[in-house]
Every structure is written in C-alpha cells, then in structure tokens.
Write a structure and sequence with these properties.
With 194 residues, the protein is an alpha/beta fold. The chain is 25% helix and 19% strand. It contains six helices and seven strands; from the N terminus they run βαββαβααβαβαβ. A seven-stranded mixed β-sheet has the order 3-2-4-5-1-6-7, covered by helices on one side. α2 (85-95) runs parallel beside α4.
Length: 194
C-alpha cells in the first residue's frame, strides 16, 4: 500500500549547485500518479528528465499542460508556465488534487509574503493530497510564513552570508555551516523542520 506524505518541502541553493538534477532524479520515484512543474517560462531544462547522473532520461519528455486543460488533468507528468503566475496559482488552488508540484524558481512568484491562493493550497496540502516542493536560490528569499509551514529543507550552497533571523531553527544554522564548508560544490544537507 502506498503511503501519503503530503509534505511541504524547501529546496534552496544558488545556481549550478545541483538542485534541478536532485529534483529530476527523484520525480520518477514519486508514487503519486500526477506531477507538475511550475515555472514562469518554458525552461529547456524541464523539457525532459535528463540529468548528469541519468543522461538517457532525455528520452523521458515532460509535455506542456495547456492552461485551458488543467481542470481536466487526471494523470501524468506535465509542466506549466505563464507570465501570469497568479492565474496558475488560482488554477492550482481550484483543481490540484493528489499530485506533486515543483515550484521552480519560486522567488519569481511567491514573493516575500504568501498570496491568498498560495496560502490556501499550502495549508490544505494534506486534505488535497499534495506534495509541494518550493525551489529558492537563497534562504533570504523564503517567506517567513512558508518557513514556519514547511516540513523539511534540502540545503545546497547559497550566496547567503548567514542564516536570516526569520529562520528560527538552530539546526538550519548547523547544516548551513556544514554545506558552506564542504569542498564539493554539489554537497547538500537535508533537515526535517516539523
């Protein structure tokens, strides 16, 4: 029997540290029947599941979900993008059930405070059977409310000079130091927050 997780996950790291490969390597193993990658533009890196570790996954394409078909989505892995991110967030609030959603480069559309639409589906993630993965380039970019709600964080190297005061988890300071001292650019640490 499959186990529901319904986690709100944060993945944080500067460009070129391996965040996208990390996510793409995990997507084929997620049990849920539906997966969605949200972005603001048609990012070529999300056209398929190719990674450094699995170059053959280039053949596993991720088709575009037409926005007008979103409400009828019942299965499969898709990507969706638009400059109108408020509309996408509203679609997710209304129609996303039983899926994993990756919010690529979340800083572009999450902002310093959660919008009502985002707050709604984040707080209802268990009831709607959602696993939510928010990707940020820095710790400073994460809204305080999302930090309090998140279940875990995967921390790669960032350009943050220190852990911002809004992140009131002493364990984050420990993994931040560990990651930044590690000689491998792709090193990361995982931490359960709640």
């Amino acid at each position: 029997m499959e186990t529901r997780t319904n986690k709100v996950s944060l993945i944080v790291g500067t460009r070129g540290t391996g965040k996208t490969d990390f996510i793409k390597n995990g997507l084929p193993n997620i049990y849920q029947r539906k997966q969605l990658i949200v972005d603001t533009f048609d990012s070529p890196v999300w056209h398929n599941l190719k990674t450094f570790k699995y170059p053959g996954n280039e053949k596993i394409e991720i088709p575009v979900m037409p926005i007008d078909k979103f409400q009828y989505w019942t299965k499969g892995r898709y990507r969706i993008f638009s400059a109108d991110t408020a509309m996408i967030m509203n679609l997710i609030t209304q129609y996303a059930i039983g899926c994993t959603i990756v919010f690529e480069d979340s800083t572009k559309y999450i902002g310093s405070r959660l919008t009502e639409a985002v707050r709604y589906f984040v707080l209802d993630s268990k009831q709607k059977d959602l696993d939510l993965i928010f990707v940020f380039h820095s710790l400073m970019s994460i809204p305080p409310e999302l930090i309090r709600i998140a279940d875990n964080i995967t921390l790669f190297k960032t350009n943050d000079r220190k852990v911002p005061a809004k992140i009131d988890f002493p364990e984050v300071e420990k993994i931040f130091t560990k990651v930044n001292k590690h000689p491998n650019r792709f090193h990361f640490e995982y931490l359960e927050l709640n």
